[in-house]
Amino acid sequence: MAKREKLEILKDTLKIIQENRNAIRPTVLLRKSRMSSSRFKEYYNDLIEGGFVKETTHNDEKLITLTDKGYKFLERYKSIIEFIEEFDL
Length: 89
Known about the structure:
Blueprint: H1 3-19, H2 26-33, H3 37-49, E1 53-58, E2 61-66, H4 68-86
Antiparallel strand pairs: 1-2
Helix pairs in contact: 1-4
């Protein structure tokens, strides 16, 4: 798998969490990510292990939220894409 493809999938997953007021149930994230459950687990584990997201509990409900590192990833990703587009790379 290409590195860029993986980075895009990670970015898209983080963006879904961010757009849901930074708190989303795992099943909702799986559905919105449009990945198979096995592929979702792979990327989700990468996000957890990398410290980009964390699991919290609110009213006995498991939620996934972005960490500071997750927000920073989204900011840097956006800057890189803008750079690539600016220079037609």
